[in-house]
Amino acid sequence: MAIAATEPAATSARPFGPAAALSCRECGERYDLGPKFACEFCFGPLEVAYDHGAVTREQIEAGPLNIWRYAPLLPVPADVDELPNMKPGLTPLVRADRLAAELGLRSLHVKDDSGNPTHSFKDRVVAIAVEAARTFGFRTLSCSSTGNLAGAVGAAAARAGFESCVFIPAGLEEGKVVMAAVYGGKVVALDGNYDDVNRFCSELIGDPAGEDWGFVNVNLRPYYGEGSKTLAYEIAEQLGWRLPEQIVVPIASGSQLTKIDKGFQELIRLGLVEDRPYKVFGAQATGCSPVARAFEQGHDVIQPVKPDTIAKSLAIGNPADGPYVLDVCRRTGGAVAHVSDAEVVDSIKLLARTEGIFAETAGGVTTGVLRRLLAEGVLDPQAETVVLNTGDGLKTLNAVDSGVTATIRPSLAAFKEAGLL
Ligand SMILES: *Cc1c(COP(=O)(O)O)cnc(C)c1O
Ligand SMILES: [Zn+2]
Q1: Which atom of ligand 1 is nearest to the CA of 256?
Q2: In which band, very low, low, confident or very high, does the pLDDT at 11 lie, cut at 50, 70 and 90?
């Protein structure tokens, strides 16, 4: 008997579920759902627009224990959980009383996304992009990556039966390179920084060599971005269908931060949570802080920088969604701030020591900004606060110089002599 064809096929009559169109963020022009990412009139970025029916808490709560419980709010088919995909999400919202006490906060939770299938939040965004790639008939998945995205794409391609070829800047952390390569796809390191890699990928898409490829964060970016909304949905559901009053989010391209806000707004509009004010705070490393600088200076335009920081997953010098991040943080009464690499390391250790959570450098950035903005009186210590950890410390081991307390002979006498008791 013939083995089933490997051609991945969408099974649903409505492959994009409740999604109705792509719309331009700048001029509002609408387009059919397709592998398009920029407006033909104004070159503005496109995003997914919806035509939601009624969605209830009960319907969501009865769904799968992963991001597909929110399928009625995402551009995916209703039966998406039955398709071969990574099923990320529903990561713990950890009540962080010990860290809160140390920082003088009344109520703090850590949304710990390190436990996703490839150990970063990127599995969420890739999961949506893969379903779009399946529908559009792409056979190869690709991306420009600061590290975590490459691993998420490699794994998702393997699971769903796509070829993959991902592009990273040379000199990434070993854990991220291994994680990207082990799934058998091609991993190409480019001599340059992320912004060079991104430029290269834009060129490749315009060339016949790359036109049949699904670049999850370029020509599939409108779909990709929607995956970050699931962080907002989960946080609200895990708080008992309530929005937090303050949330601290890392910024690389800025997509995640803007989509968390989009997710909160949708929950309010659909009546799934009470409409109450929340403030969104963005976090960057000082060595790559173009959005924080624009915020401080009151500018609307982001001045690109050359990144120089250990927080490589956030090292995008020319963040595509930077201006929209400024809009969200200003509109909600939040802020954008930055911390030095030394503070990042310190904050990784603080989070590990107080809560048993080992964050990658991006989690050091958010925890560091949380601490700094509390100290500066910008964050309210009385407000219910959530801080994101978006990746696993095992991928950025070299950032922390932790090691054994002592090496001794295996004898009780030696242990007592070592003065550790
Ligand atoms: C990619 C990434 C982010 C943020 O990405 P955006 O481009 O801003 O959406 C945050 N944390 C980690 C660990 C990442 O890999
Ligand atoms: Zn437009």
Answers
A1: 9
A2: low
Pick the CATH number of 93-119+228-399 from 1.10.760.10, 3.40.50.10950, 3.40.47.10, 3.40.50.1100: 3.40.50.1100
CA of 112 to the centre of ligand 1 (A): 14
Q: How far is the CA of 23 from the centre of ligand 2 (A)?
A: 8
Tell me which amino acid residue 418 is.
A
Ligand nearest to the CA of 259: 1
User: For residues 288 and 266, what is the distance between their CA atoms, to the nearest angstrom?
Assistant: 31
**Residue 420 burial (C-beta neighbours within 10 Å; 0-12, 13-18, 19+):** exposed
Atom 5 of ligand 1 has which residue's CA nearest to it? 252
- Which candidate, 142, 171, 107, 146, places its Cα nearest to that of 361? 146
**pLDDT tens-digit readout, 94-146:** 999 999 999 999 999 999 999 999 999 999 999 999 999 999 999 999 999 99
Half-sphere exposure of 336 (CA within 13 A, CB side): 34
- List, for residues 389-417, the tens digit of each pLDDT value: 999 999 999 999 888 999 999 999 999 99
Q: Whose CA is nearest to atom 7 of ligand 1?
A: 253
Atom number in ligand 1 closest to CA 217:
7
How close is the Cα of 26 to the center of ligand 1, in Å? 23
- Residue 397 has a pLDDT of 94
Mean pLDDT, the chain, rounded, equals 95
Query: Which of 111, 148, 258, 318 for mutating ligand 1's site (highest number of atoms within 8 Å of CB)?
Result: 148
User: What are the start and end residues of each CATH 3.40.50.1100 domain in the chain?
Assistant: 19-83+122-224, 93-119+228-399
How does pLDDT run across 285-327, given as a tens digit for each residue? 999 999 999 999 999 999 999 999 999 999 999 999 999 999 9
Fold of 19-83+122-224: Rossmann fold (3.40.50)
Residue 3 alpha carbon to ligand 1 centre in Å: 39
Order across the sheet with 335-339: list the strands.
Answer: 93-95, 107-112, 384-389, 246-250, 279-285, 335-339
Pocket of ligand 1 (CB under 6 A): 120-122, 148, 250-256, 313-314, 360, 362, 390-391
